[in-house]
Design brief:
The structure is a single chain. This protein is an alpha/beta fold. The chain folds into four domains: 121 residues, no CATH class; 68 residues, no CATH class; 58 residues, no CATH class; 205 residues, Uracil-DNA Glycosylase, subunit E. The protein contains 20 helices and 13 strands. The strands form four sheets. Strands 3-4-5-6-7 form a five-stranded mixed sheet. A four-stranded parallel sheet has the order 9-8-12-13, with helices on both faces. It is globular, with a radius of gyration of 28 Å. The structure holds uracil and iron/sulfur cluster. The site of uracil has 13 residues, from helix 14.
């Protein structure tokens, strides 16, 4: 049995595994050991075969496996490298579909580890609690210690960059540390063996990290330990810590961001000034809105689109992934359903005004995907002034609310799509208002029959609205004074 020493990270394992595979070393002939020896010694352990054989097997390794391996590499289970190598061997030797065999022992182990690492990453996002430190020159930075179960900081740090990009911060774990100086993310050593240092200890640690040398990669751990009074490494049981952190995390995060940005709560603070506001002025002003935290993570404001004298306005929920990237409402999958339905009832899209209750995309990262998340009541409240002002300017004779977010924002929390859809009523925004399903809700109905039925109702609601538009004499709307 050969022992292969590797650094405890994915790249080191990948490089070693590649050479082993090329040298045709079977999984039962090898075991991985963490730490110490340089990888450069690997070819010697393998003999000349490793050098001579082309390391081409990687080409046949499924992408899914590499993603899985990257996540599993963050685990701490010592035999994960062996399990990964065995799976890699099997994948490249007549079992290309191995990952789909859920009952296989290796696959089960890998998936279990993957799940634990992912969960630990989520916990890190939720529980990291920053402490604000005022530097000698009056500047501020934030520091947090988080005891993670696995090595999830590298993968999770970009989340903190997105959320707290405007401030300088460090997150320390027992494995490693991440540092953001407002421009660049760097990683340094961890502060191992100490459990959840107190706030004072954090402050002390920061002074040593930053006051001595600003480059965290140059920190000398031994020097740090020597300087750090032992009493600071006091332990707090995690069970005692978690409810506290949970309760405090959102407030602290909000405070941090608020202090470091010029953000004011609510869209109204960003309105153009002047007695009359035109739609174009409103749209321009919304581009730089910082009325809620969504402006920090989304790409851009997605404002309403369509003629100012449109006789029908549609209000959706919030931009999705594609809308966020393109800057235009309803251009993704929901937009396609919407466009098809409009075409079906003979309503040209360029004659209608389309907007959303919330103007920035809210999402959650799942792997590399941005997954839509419902806007919170607070975000809906913060953003409402934009859609209200759009409606005040356009004064549409017909208003269609797509889905419950739009309806609850403009009508009230009591509004229920399942109960109140398809019944026209007079609202503050239009004499003829109707609420119906959201097109993406239609896409999510799994049952074919139920989906077809909901689509039929959706189309019927839109058809009624279109008929109402046609019923109103053109003069009535043309006579309105346009801003
Ligand atoms: N869903 C919405 O509510 N609005 C869009 O713009 C896109 C999808
Ligand atoms: Fe402003 Fe609305 Fe964007 Fe929040 S979601 S920042 S309130 S435009």
């Amino acid at each position: 049995m050969r022992q292969v020493r590797i650094e405890a990270d994915f790249e080191a394992w990948r490089d070693a595994a590649r050479s082993l595979l090329a040298a045709n070393v079977r999984p039962e002939q090898v075991t991985f050991v963490e730490g110490g020896l340089e990888n450069a010694l690997l070819p010697n352990l393998l003999g000349d075969a490793a050098i001579d054989s082309p390391a081409s097997s990687a080409a046949r390794v499924p992408r899914d496996f590499l993603t899985l391996a990257q996540i599993v590499a963050c685990h701490t289970e010592a035999d994960r490298w062996d399990v990964l190598y065995r799976a890699l061997w099997r994948l490249t030797h007549d079992e290309p579909n191995l990952l789909r065999i859920a009952v296989d022992d290796d696959v089960r182990r890998l998936q279990e580890m993957e799940k634990q690492v992912r969960f630990d990453g989520h916990k890190m996002k939720a529980f990291v609690r920053f402490r604000r430190l005022v530097e000698a020159d009056g500047g501020e930075c934030y520091i947090a210690y988080h005891r993670s179960a696995y090595r999830v900081l590298k993968a999770t740090a970009p989340f903190f960059v997105r959320r707290f990009g405007v401030m300088r911060w460090s997150v320390l774990t027992q494995f490693d540390s991440a540092h953001w100086d407002g421009k660049e993310l760097t990683f340094g050593p961890g502060v191992d063996r100490c459990a959840a240092p107190t706030d004072d200890a954090l402050e002390e640690m920061w002074r040593i990290y930053y006051a001595s040398t600003f480059n965290p990669n140059r920190i000398k751990l031994s020097a740090m330990r020597k300087e750090m009074p032992r009493k600071y490494w006091s332990t707090m049981p995690e069970t005692q810590l978690i409810p506290d952190l949970l309760a405090d995390a959102p407030r602290r995060a909000k405070e941090m961001v608020a202090r470091h940005s010029d953000r004011l709560e609510g869209a109204r603070a960003y309105f153009p000034t002047g007695a009359t506001i035109t739609l174009q002025q409103l749209r321009d002003a919304a581009q730089t809105c910082r009325g809620c935290d969504l402006c920090d993570i989304a790409t851009q404001t997605v404002f309403g689109e369509g003629p100012v004298d449109a006789r029908i306005v549609f209000v959706g929920e919030q931009p999705g992934d594609q809308e966020d990237l393109s800057g235009r409402p309803f251009v993704g999958p929901a937009g396609q359903v919407f466009d098809q339905t409009l075409a079906g009832i003979g309503l040209p899209r360029d004659q209608v005004y389309v907007t959303n209750a919330v103007k920035h995309f809210r999402f959650e990262m799942r792997g590399k995907k941005r997954i839509h998340q419902r806007a919170s009541a607070r975000q809906i409240d913060a953003c409402r002034p934009w859609v209200e002002q759009e409606l005040t300017i356009i004064k549409p004779p017909v208003l269609v609310l797509l889905g419950s977010t739009a309806a609850q924002s403009l009508i009230g929390r009591h509004f229920k799509i399942t109960r109140d859809r398809g019944r026209p009523f007079q609202s503050d925004w239009s004499p003829w208002t109707i609420a119906t399903f959201h097109p993406s809700a239609l896409l999510r109905i799994p049952d074919d029959q139920r989906r077809a039925e909901a689509q039929r109702q959706f189309e019927a609601d839109l058809r009624r609205a279109a008929e109402e538009v046609r019923r109103i004499p053109v003069a009535a709307s043309a006579a309105r004074v346009l801003p």
